[in-house]
Amino acid sequence: MILPQHEDALWERRRHQEVFIAPNLDEDELEQMSRRVRWAMEEERPIMITVAERYGPETFCGFIERVLLQEQVIKIRNGREIRWIPFPSIIGVEEPYEDE
Fold first, then answer.
1. For the residues of 80-91, what is the DSSP string, one character each?
2. pTM for the full model?
3. Please, what is the average pLDDT of the chain?
4. CA neighbor of 92 nearest in space, from 66, 61, 70
5. In the prediction, which pLDDT does 17 show?
6. Which of 20, 30, 41, 59 could join 64 via S-S bond, C-beta 3.0 to 4.6 A?
7. Would you call 76 exposed, middle or buried from its count of C-beta atoms within 10 A (0-12, 13-18, 19+)?
8. Is 91:52 a contact under the CB 8 Å cutoff?
């Protein structure tokens, strides 16, 4: 018999052992993500960027400060937290959800 807290830890450890394989994005998806990034930057609006991390997708919400085409990275800020996100790791770009 396994205690519930041990079972949770076991599942968490097992989840981290499986490497995430990012989906292949087609040209339409890439173009749509590019438009959303450009819109968020021009309008100074927050954006949610989902990236492929080693053990699964991770989403970061913030304001785009810079897009460096040569280096292929996006600088996004949420308060004090800053992330440099490489283009190839991006698997999704969406507008943040608003409460009604």
1. TEEEEEEGGGEE
2. 0.75
3. 86
4. 61
5. 67
6. 41
7. buried
8. yes
User: 93 with 48: CB under 8 angstroms?
Assistant: yes
For the chain, give the percent of residues with pLDDT over 70.
87
- Helix or strand (DSSP H, E) at 94: strand 90-94
For residue 7, pLDDT beyond 80: no
Sign, Cα dihedral of 22, 27, 29, 31: positive
Residue 34's pLDDT band, with cuts at 50, 70 and 90, is very high
State the DSSP string of 28-79. HHHHHHHHHHHHHHHHT--EEEEEEETTEEEEEEEEEEEEETTTTEEEEEET
Supply 75's token pair: 């600088």
